[in-house]
Amino acid sequence: MQRLLDIVNKNFSLQTDLSPIDNKNNSEEDDDSEVPGRKTQYRKLGTFINKATKSCKGDSLYICGTPGTGKTLTLTTLSKNLPKNKYRTIYINCMDFSQASKIYIEIYRRLSNLKSTKKGASESLELIESNFFYDYETDGDQELENLKKKEKTVILILDEVDVLIEKFSSILYRIFEWPTRDSSKLILFGIANDLGLVEKSLPRFAKIGMDIEVLHFEPYVESQILEIFQHRIKRVCKEYGIENEEQKQHLFEPETLEMISKRLASNRCDIRKAFDVIRRLVTLKFEQHIENADCNDSLEEDPNEVIDFEPNQYCFTMELVNEVISEFFESKVVTNMKSLPIHAQLILFSSFLTILNFETLYKSYKNHCSIISFTPMGKSDFSLSIDSIVSNGLMSMNQHKLESGRVIRLLYSKEELSMAFKDSIIFEPILQELNSQ
Ligand SMILES: Nc1ncnc2c1ncn2[C@@H]1O[C@H](COP(=O)(O)OP(=O)(O)O)[C@@H](O)[C@H]1O
Ligand SMILES: [Mg+2]
Prior knowledge:
By secondary structure, the chain is α/β, with parallel strands linked by helices. It has three domains: 38-216, P-loop containing nucleotide triphosphate hydrolases (Rossmann fold, 3-Layer(aba) Sandwich); 222-332, no CATH class; 340-436, Winged helix-like DNA-binding domain superfamily/Winged helix DNA-binding domain (Arc Repressor Mutant, subunit A, Orthogonal Bundle). It is 51% helix and 8% strand. The protein is built from 19 helices and seven strands. The protein has helices spanning 2-11, 39-55, 71-80, 102-111, 121-132, 142-150, 162-167, 169-177, 195-207, 222-240, 245-248, 256-266, 271-292, 318-339, 342-349, 358-371, 379-391, 414-420, 428-436, and strands at residues 59-64, 87-93, 153-159, 186-192, 213-216, 395-397, 408-410. The strands form two sheets. It has a five-stranded parallel sheet, with helices on both faces. A two-stranded antiparallel sheet has the order 6-7. Helix 4 (102-111) crosses helix 5 and helix 14 crosses helix 18. The site of adenosine-5'-diphosphate (ADP) has 17 residues, from helix 3 and helix 13.
């Protein structure tokens, strides 16, 4: 078991990621060329590069999205997959520099393939602009044109560019000018977290005739998080040695991953939190494993052994997942539940129905009222209560012209509900019923 848990831990940790290009240790066993959950952006970026390459001119693009939306991963993975004979990539994280102008030195060093350089910032800038990205003296110089065609296209990735936009915009504008130079086959990407900042810088570019496109990375939705999980689990199975499809299904009990993804997405979580959840699962499973091991059992295991799961046996059970979910999300959900008016709380108890819509819920709510001798609200007050539950993030409802036709989804679990009201005297009879289901 320990070997399996170690492998899960490793594959859900951030260190093993496909991050910056220069990381040669990354002899990725990953056969997927695209990034899970980011196929659209991956393809758009690919098309952008192809288009610029075909035109034999430079171009630039902003990539923007909150942290943990896969911006760096998508672009670095794509650049790694580009043919080496046609492209060379220079990845710069703007946050790595104590002085912003040192970015010029680093770009010069990389363009010139030097191990190190004693050149200062302004000299580096001069050299970049005279040797690499310059305007022709005479238009249509055939020799130069031919030379240019043979040169590799440079992909320059300026990551975490927010700091330049905000504080050192002259450096930013200077770099963004390079792709517009005659000799330039530079494709420049500026990756930023703050859309507001990016938008602030656009008019300035427009003034000098540069219309820079912005590619957005929205927070991952449920299906994308699930896709990322499946992608990592595939890697786990490969490394651990589970080849049998049926056995793969025994790592996570059905519905567990869906539940985690749903919760993460409804909280618009950074994907790194998704990995935290899985690593926490591993820790709890490991503790459980040690606790359950007989004193005489040796915890040492054969390094080649692959656990053969029995039917209905799972490595990560729903119970374990619920425990982790309540650890991670409990406070907000539970606080929100507790802050609702009492009738809205009663609605929460009434919502575990196979078909959940306005009508079925109202009926169930009335039943629950009778159990605890409450007078039920009329439909309009009931509707207002549902609105407050939705605005507290505990339910979501699809849009439908008729209130009765709206499908309701729960964003909390039975466990969270019983956790929130475990000491309540009023709800005691309903709680008992809930826990016995
Ligand atoms: N689609 C994805 N599939 C797998 N891992 C991902 C995905 N998106 C992000 N990650 C991982 O999450 C972490 C943060 O992603 P990153 O690309 O650095 O986000 P951003 O640059 O938007 O802040 C990285 O470790 C990355 O490998
Ligand atoms: Mg990043």
